[in-house]
From TrEMBL:
Gene source species: Chlorella sorokiniana
Pfam families, A to Z: DAO (PF01266)
Record's protein name: D-aspartate oxidase
Binding site residues for FAD: 60-61, 184, 200, 332-337
GO CC list: cytoplasm
Keyword Flavoprotein: yes
SUPFAM superfamilies: FAD-linked reductases, C-terminal domain (SSF54373), Nucleotide-binding domain (SSF51971)
Domain called FAD dependent oxidoreductase: residue spans: 24-349
Keyword set includes Flavoprotein: yes
GO molecular-function terms, A-Z: D-amino-acid oxidase activity; FAD binding
Gene3D superfamilies per record: D-Amino Acid Oxidase, subunit A, domain 2, NAD(P)-binding Rossmann-like Domain
Entries under InterPro entries matching the protein: D-amino_acid_oxidase_CS (IPR006181), DAO (IPR023209), FAD-dep_OxRdtase (IPR006076)
């Protein structure tokens, strides 16, 4: 994947937009930033939309397995998670039905989530198709020894980060959006734009001084196991570290770990062994799978997702006293699960900010 970058530094600072339309700067090129940029460009075709990011490729979003499932979202209200999640799932189901499916990496899959104790239905049970508590006979197909006493079955979509991020980049370029590789040290640098959209994930801690942001470290393995086609998960209860198996196009993702507050992205031997052994306990055939890659990523944790418009006061010396900023960050372990729905709200907030000028 190659970035189509804006040609001049003016696009980063502002003033690089078309003469007819407003100039919108989206900071961050993960799934939240790229989806926001695309939906803003779709809502405001005359606007100049520039994505500015330190990393245009290989973000956390590019490396994620891409399962649709709300996870590690703190106290984000369930009604918001369901609304954003439903919009996003509908978008992925639409992609799965369309000729875009292979390019976007959208795959429909069955999900089997096994538990060792009774667990109530999740709030999002109403969002996914075919949700039901599994019967014992269904559980035994996956767990012949009967080590799990309960389970959920549902249908969901896997939108593999690597493929979907490439598709988003193509869509944005085709719509006329631009991308520019650059770190933003202070919001004042963007004063020339009409609206800034903050999609910096964990970067919001430094850029906007949000000390409630924290990393939730996650270690996953990628193995070659083409016989595995369904999502399987075994856990002790919601919020507990779980064992998960997510098929992607060329590899199967085995996870995982949950390390709140841990910034270390170096893989640990003990975790690697634990992840593999736990996955083999759920699906013993994985012992034949070749390990092809591993990755430690940092989920952008926060007490809840932040999606709101703020008039940010700029420091002295700026060309104007304040700048409207739409914040869209803190999606924890569910950025791909919520991105399309959140981006729809972000596009509306940008329109509100422009209407106030
Ligand atoms: C192991 C693991 C597995 C996961 N699996 C799934 C899954 O199956 N399904 C799912 O929905 N989610 C999953 N997630 C979570 C998902 O990856 C995140 O929620 C998502 O990537 C967050 O997207 P984002 O765009 O907010 O942040 P990121 O992808 O981290 O992107 C942030 C962007 O902001 C830029 N940036 C930050 N600060 C600055 C600055 N000062 N100047 C310029 N640019 C800046 C960065 O360079 C980057 O481009 C997983 C996460 C991990 C770690």
């Amino acid at each position: 994947m190659h970035a189509r970058a804006a040609s001049s530094a003016a696009a980063a600072g502002g003033g690089g937009g078309s003469s007819e339309g407003p100039s919108i700067c989206v900071v961050g090129a993960g799934v939240i930033g790229m989806t926001s940029a695309l939906r803003i460009k779709q809502a405001l075709p005359a606007a100049s939309v520039t994505v500015v990011a330190e990393q245009l490729e290989d973000t956390t979003s590019h490396c994620a397995g891409g399962l649709w499932k709300p996870y590690t979202l703190g106290d984000t209200p369930p009604e918001l998670v369901n609304r954003w999640g439903r919009d996003t799932l509908q978008h992925y189901l639409g992609l799965y039905q369309s000729p875009e499916a292979p390019a976007a990496g959208a795959v429909l899959t069955s999900a089997y989530q096994l538990f060792r104790q009774p667990v109530p239905n999740p709030e999002w049970a109403q969002v996914v198709p075919h949700f039901r508590q599994m019967s014992e006979a269904e559980r035994r197909v996956l767990d012949p020894e009967g080590s799990h006493s309960h389970g959920w079955f549902y249908t969901t979509v896997i939108t593999e980060g690597r493929l979907y991020m490439g598709w988003l980049a193509q869509q944005l370029a085709a719509a006329g959006g631009q991308r520019l590789a650059r770190r933003v040290a202070a919001v004042e640098e963007l004063a020339g734009h009409d609206v800034v959209v903050n999609c910096t994930g964990l970067g919001a801690k430094a850029l906007f001084g949000d000390d409630s942001c924290y990393p939730v470290r996650g270690h996953v393995l990628r193995v070659r196991a083409p016989w595995v086609r369904h999502y399987t998960n075994s856990e002790n209860g919601p919020g507990e570290e779980s064992t998960y198996i997510i098929p992607n196009s060329e590899t199967v993702v085995l996870g995982g770990t949950l390390g709140p507050g841990d910034w270390d992205t170096t893989p640990r031997e003990a975790d690697r062994r634990r992840i593999f052994e736990r996955a083999c306990a759920v699906l013993p055939s994985l012992r034949s799978a070749e390990l092809v890659a591993e990755w430690v990523g940092l989920r952008p944790g926060r007490p809840s997702v932040r999606l709101e418009l703020e008039e940010v006061q700029l420091k002295g010396g700026s060309s104007k006293p304040s700048l409207p900023v739409v914040h869209n960050y803190g999606h924890g372990g569910a950025g791909l699960t919520l991105a399309w729905g959140c981006a729809g709200d972000a596009a509306q907030l940008v329109q509100q900010a422009l209407a106030r000028r």
